[in-house]
Amino acid sequence: MPSLIQFRNTCVRYSDLVTGLADFSLSVERGEFIYLLGPTGSGKSTILKLLYREVAPTSGEVWLDGENIGQLAERDIPFLRRKMGIVPQDFALLPNKTVWENVGYAMRAIGKGRREVRQTIPRILDQVRIGHRADALPHQLSGGEQQRVAIARSLINDPPLILADEPTGNLDPEHSLEILQILEELNSKGTTVLMATHDMMVVNRCPHRILRMQGGRMQKEGALVV
Amino acid sequence: MWFDRLGFLVGEAFTALRRNRWMTFAAISTATAALFLLGGLFLTWLQVSRSAQAVGERLPVRAFFRYGAEQEVLTQSLAEARQIPGVRSVRLVTKEEGWKDFQKKYPQVAKDLDNPLPDSLHVQLTDVEQVGGVAARLQKLDGIQPDGVRYQNDQQKLVADGLRTLHIVGIALGAMMLLTSGVLIYNAIRLTIVARRREIRIMQLVGATRATVRAPMVIEGLFQGAIGGALAGALIGGSVLGMQRLAANLSAQSFQTGFNFGPWMFGLGLAGAAYGVLCSLFALRDSGRQLG
Ligand SMILES: Nc1ncnc2c1ncn2[C@@H]1O[C@H](COP(=O)(O)OP(=O)(O)OP(=O)(O)O)[C@@H](O)[C@H]1O
Ligand SMILES: [Mg+2]
Question: What is the pLDDT of residues A67-80, one digit of tens each?
Answer without folding.
Answer: 999 989 999 999 99
